[in-house]
Amino acid sequence: MIRVAIVTRAIDPAAIIASIASTGYGAISLFAGTVRDTSDGRGVSAIDYSAYTSMAEAELEQIAAEAADRFGVTSLIVEHRIGVLSLGETSVAIAAAHAHRAPAFDCTRYVIEEIKKRVPIWKMEHYIDGTREWVDPTKASGVASA
Amino acid sequence: MSTVTVQLFASYAESFGGATLEIPLNSGDTVGDLVDSLRSLPGASILPDSPRVAVNQKFASYDQAVHARDEIALIPPVAGG
């Protein structure tokens, strides 16, 4: 089962793991991206995610297909949430199941790295001082982000 | 001359002041021509040297032809995750 979605509800990593689990697998790798309370030293209060949803889902499908092919993974779930997220909430979850751990790890890593390159999703950070700013990773100051 | 609708998102929508733009289209125009047209509009200062453009929901090269009924979108730097 390969399933990708842009969602507007809360992401439930435990439910994703439950839906992908099978006794045929020896490994489930889960990556969850969450909303952090600082960005470049500024206090963050929330992040507002938006997307070109139809293209974002098409790109996610393409990435998932590439990952499945590359790592021999047949069970992969990718969910990315949009809307206003509070601190600590899960913005993205990627779960891959495989007989062995290496392909499962590699698959989730590949999917998140590709999402960051080419899925049309944007985030506006809201700061505790009341200001807000669109995040532009092409102008990153060198501080790694989640 | 026809026109093509360009969808805008996030920072670009804010800068250009709307979610869509109608851009004049000449026969044979490419994605690169479209980007050149966009650069003359108010708000275009936000655009980087080579903004990404999607045609029919796929990233397009600048030499790709554009047709009036294509779904065109100008894609700001993505920031998912």
Describe the 3D structure.
Chain A is an alpha+beta fold and 146 residues long. Chain A has a single domain, classed as Aldehyde Oxidoreductase, domain 3, CATH 3.90.1170. Helix content of chain A is 31%, strand content 38%. Chain A has three helices and nine strands. Chain A has helices spanning 13-20, 53-71, 101-118; strands at residues 2-7, 27-34, 38-39, 42-51, 75-81, 83-86, 90-98, 121-127, 132-134. In chain A, strands 3, 4, 6, 8 and 9 form a five-stranded antiparallel beta sheet that branches. Chain A has a four-stranded mixed beta sheet with strand order 1-5-7-2, sandwiched between helices. In chain A, a hairpin with a 4-residue loop joins β8 (121-127) and β9. The model of chain A has no long low-confidence stretch (mean pLDDT 95). By secondary structure, chain B is α+β, with helices and mostly antiparallel strands. Chain B has a single domain (2-75), classed as Ubiquitin-like (UB roll), CATH 3.10.20.30. Chain B is built from two helices and five strands; from the N terminus they run βαβαβββ. Chain B has helices spanning 10-16, 31-39, and strands at 2-8, 20-25, 52-55, 58-59, 72-75. Chain B has a five-stranded mixed beta sheet with strand order 2-1-5-3-4. The termini of chain B are far apart. Chains A and B meet through β4, α2, α3 and β8 of A and α1 and β4 of B.
Task: Work out the strand percent of chain A.
Answer: 35-45%
Q: Which CATH first-tier class of chain B would you pick?
A: Alpha Beta
The number of helical segments of chain A is: 3
* SS-derived structural category of chain B: alpha+beta
Tell me the CATH architecture of chain B.
Roll
User: How many domain units of chain A?
Assistant: 1
Distance between the termini of chain A: 27 Å
For this structure, the CATH topology of chain B is: Ubiquitin-like (UB roll)
Major sheet size, sense and barrel closure of chain B: 5 strands, mixed
Structural category of chain A: alpha+beta
CATH architecture assignment of chain A: Alpha-Beta Complex
Q: Which percent range describes the beta-strand content of chain B?
A: 25-35%
User: Which range best describes the helical content of chain A: under 10%, 10-25%, 25-40%, 40-55%, 55-70% or over 70%?
Assistant: 25-40%
Relative helix content of chain B:
10-25%
Shape of chain A: elongated
Q: How many extended strands of chain B?
A: 5
| Element string of chain B (H = helix, E = strand) | EHEHEEE
